[in-house]
Amino acid sequence: MSDVKEAVTRAHQDEWARVVASLTRRFGDLDIAEEAAAEAFATAVERWPVDGVPPNPGAWLTTTAVRKAIDRIRRENKRDDKHKEAQMVYDNTPPEPLGVIDDDRLRLIFTCCHPALAMEARVALTLRMLGGLTMPEIARAFLVRETTLEQRITRAKAKIKAARIPYRVPAAEDLPARVSGVLAVLYLVFNEGYLATGPDTDPVRHDLTTEAIRLTRLIRALLPDDGEVTGLLALMLLTEARRTARVSVSGELVTLDEQDRGAWDKALIAEGHQLVRERLVAAAAGVAPGRYQILAAINAVHTSARDIRDTDWSQVVALYDQLVHLDSSPIVALNRAIAVAELDGPEVALAAVDRLEDELAGYHAYHATRADLLRRLGQSQQSRAAYDKAIELAGNTAQTANLTRRRDQLR
Amino acid sequence: MQYLVSVIDDESSPGSTDRRPAISAFNERLIAEGYWVFAGGLAGTDAATVIDNRGEQTVFSDGPFVESKEYLAGVWVWEVPDLDVALKLAAEASKVCDRKIEVRPFQ
Fold it and tell me: Where is the RNA polymerase sigma factor 70 region 4 type domain (chain A) (predicted)?
């Protein structure tokens, strides 16, 4: 019995996106595809315990979903749509090859992450259509009301239909620009899981980091030569590897310098390092690395060190220097300054951090970093004020606990 | 699929005024590639009149239906296969016109 339950869960993880994508191709409608897929999985939950798990669950689910979709179209269609219905029901011709890679799921990803959709709609649609997450799950993850989320998804689907956003992998020349949007969505999902923004959620959302990694793996399988896809997957794996060491039993965030490195996931680190090495080979051959590849390399340096003192900080700073050229945002400058503190001391770092005040005054990490540097310089009073500000701005409960302890340890 | 492509100008930072030759060249390309349906530039919003005949009397009022610093300066109607083609052309149109562009499908 539990074997069947497990088979359904596994099929949902492995086959959901494939079923939705193949139905979207066939019927050209996200709503029909999604609802038919959901019905097929509901049928599996009923049938499989009685009939046994079919030898090819994916094919069984797709066939069942297609039947459900046809039933639905028959039920809902009015007489004047008969012609269209006939086409939908009997059109079994293989799809025209569109774009550079012909995979239904890849098309679905590019449709859900189309630049004409708002970022939050892209995130919600991707989690729903590709991840198979339910509305309540997504709503909880992003701290929005379920009705708000439903409206967001409904509106996005309506725009796809009305504005005729194509179900297609973009042409080769547009691909890099469009992939970056897809990666931004996946990174957003991962980060929300890794450092949840709200005070009312778990500080670390394992379900979301897992989902982001799963979808990024899917993209990598479909676009193995894209350096940034590989870079993002490596970055996620090396970050995820430290997840369990990152929150203490009392629910406090444990920063990198205090983490138990023995608790890091060695398999994920090995896989992440392997991917970073793959990109280093490409870089040596003259392919300039992008943002995610550099961030992954920084994480590879951290995860190679036996303890914080063993970290190759000059390497970390050099990588941040490279990153600054690609991304001149103040947040990158802030993270660079944190590494500079280890290499050149807190005074040099503080001067660099203070220059970011105008842009980052509302960002908790700016104040947390200042507080830490001021503490190391013995300026307790100013440090305390900076901790207070950071605590006020931080939303994550584990982080607030960490900042509060650090502040209270000041003399 | 037809799209209404609106050219949006801004009173406080208007686009440059020497765009005619570039727009003509762009239009010729639209015609050659089969996307052109219709296009036209509009006179200023001070030439607009709004008519409301929903009540007992017809009311004419001087000026555009909405007062804002951004206003519609011209329109195209394009016939293209999907939004991606429209967006690609619209990105070029924005450069050519030196103005913002809104792309909206007809129902």
Answer: 109-160
Token pair 């550099």 is at which residue? A294
Residue A271 has pLDDT above 90, yes or no: yes
Residue A36 lies in a domain: yes
pLDDT at res. A99: 46
Query: Is there a domain that residue A167 lies in?
Result: no
If one counts the domains in chain A, the total is: 1
Which of A115, A164, A174 is opposite residue B82, by nearest beta carbon?
A164
Using a CB-CB cut-off of 8 Å, the residues of chain B touching A166 are: 81-84
* Residue of chain A whose Cα is closest to the Cα of B2: A163
Instruction: Indicate the range of A182-186, A189-193, A325-329 predicted with least confidence.
Output: A189-193
Residue A297 burial (C-beta neighbours within 10 Å; 0-12, 13-18, 19+):
buried
Q: Per the domain annotation, does A169 fall within a domain?
A: no
Question: Can you give the residue range of the structural domain that contains A54?
Answer: 2-90
- A1 interfacial to chain B (CB closer than 8 Å): no
**What secondary structure does DSSP assign to A91-137, as a single string?**
--PPPPP-SSS--HHHHHHHHHT-TTS-HHHHHHHIIIIIT---HHH
Cβ partners under 8 Å of residue A36, min gap 6: A23, A65, A66, A68, A69, A72
Which of B79, B82, B84, B101 best tests the A interface by mutation, with the highest count of A CBs <10 A? B84
Chain A residues within 8 A of B105 when measuring between CB atoms: 162-164
For B1, the closest chain A residue by CA position comes to: A164
A166 with B82: Cβ contact below 8 A: yes
pLDDT at A96 > cutoff 60 = no
Do B82 and A165 make contact, defined as CB atoms within 8 angstroms?
A: yes
pTM over 0.90: no
Contact B83 A168 (CB under 8 A): no
A280/A294 Cα distance (integer angstroms) = 10
Give chain B positions within 8 Å (CB) of A114: 83
Say how far apart CA A183 and CA A174 lie, in whole Å.
15
Per-residue pLDDT of chain B (107 residues; tens, 9 = 90+): 999 999 999 999 999 999 999 999 999 999 999 999 999 999 999 999 999 999 999 999 998 998 899 999 999 999 999 999 999 999 999 999 999 999 999 99
The pLDDT, as a whole number, for residue A79 is 47
Structure confidence at residue A199 (pLDDT): 64
- All residues of chain A having their beta carbon less than 8 Å from the beta carbon of residue B1 are 164
Give domain status of residue A310, yes or no: no
Helix A82-90 / helix A57-76 crossing angle, nearest 10 deg: 170
Position with higher pLDDT, B103 vs A127: B103
A:157-186 residues touching chain B, CB 8 A cutoff: 162-166, 168, 170, 174
Per-residue model confidence as pLDDT tens digits over A350-367: 999 999 999 999 999 999
Nearest CA in chain B to A167: B82
